[in-house]
């Protein structure tokens, strides 16, 4: 049942190319327009949406953070992302033109469910992104985008997360189509780029042994930091969460630009710091990241840099370099998260932990 893998988690990591492909399947109709069948919200309702609030917990929340970059960039609709457990307790301002998007792999997370119930009493429309057909959250939503990861058994979310990202991109593109902020050929172009993601993930997985080796070099680590910028920032948070929950090692993710406002004081010789390097582009993201890496390295950090395969600017500052396929910055989370999942899985394994059932955790959190 684990397809020869030692853990469900590892099996699920390796299923990600298939999970992404399935979640993209059949989303374009014969005339090339995006169609999301379970959407159930009319285009006219969506056209009136002027604000989006994404609510979720844990890894799903980090998927929501990535969604914000894509939705705002492609649709010019303002997006807030909030933890479900915080949302309800601050008396949020919701109107008929607010779309609430709940992201939940299980569809049963109590805080997320209570949050959408609250949103509906305020007459906001609720759309859910969910992996579990017939679960409570999609049943209580106005519309759903299902992900097709298949059952996720490992407590730590992996294929659930990448397919949530896919659903977020689909939602962003669909809104752009409805609102006319994106022309048909631009939507096609991004969909074509998404269709290439499964093979890109495959190429990252083909280098799993390199990541396992790096993981085995870190069995004595007591703290690991993760730095990212832009869409790489939520990936840093996700990498840190995977390490905490599986290896029980202190880990923190930071926005790279924030470290000089405090966290840089944590850097001491030998501290492992993962750095997620944005693709080189016309913006300054890449160069800004490079200077962040230099700052921590000067202070003795051991840098493990995830960067485009042919990005030779990083080598001088990387103690370890992990190559990533060339994809646009907004889609980079889909490939950049894979080495971080492999790292946490392998490190937890060599430390002798139960990867599928980490201590103190449950697969779905049905208490508030
Ligand atoms: C982490 C993890 C959790 C879940 C969170 C939300 O690996 O799995 O953080 O992401 O409990 O669960 P869902 O998506 O089912 O609402």
From TrEMBL:
SIS domain: residues covered: 42-181, 214-358
Coiled coil: none
Function text: Catalyzes the first step in hexosamine metabolism, converting fructose-6P into glucosamine-6P using glutamine as a nitrogen source.
Single Gene Ontology BP annotation: protein N-linked glycosylation
Chief location of this protein within or outside the cell: cytoplasm
Catalysed reaction, written as an equation: D-fructose 6-phosphate + L-glutamine = D-glucosamine 6-phosphate + L-glutamate
Enzyme nomenclature, EC number: 2.6.1.16
First-level EC class: transferase
Origin superkingdom: Bacteria
Compartment list: Cytoplasm
Record keywords: Aminotransferase, Cytoplasm, Glutamine amidotransferase, Repeat, Transferase
Catalytic residues in the record: 363
Molecular function via GO: carbohydrate derivative binding; glutamine-fructose-6-phosphate transaminase (isomerizing) activity
Subunit (UniProt): Homodimer.
Boundaries of the shown chain within the full protein: 247 to 614 of 614
Official protein name in the record: Glutamine--fructose-6-phosphate aminotransferase [isomerizing]
Repeat among keywords: yes
Higher taxonomy: Bacteria, Bacillati, Actinomycetota, Actinomycetes, Propionibacteriales
Species assigned in the record: Nocardioides jishulii
Cellular component annotations (GO), alphabetically ordered: cytosol
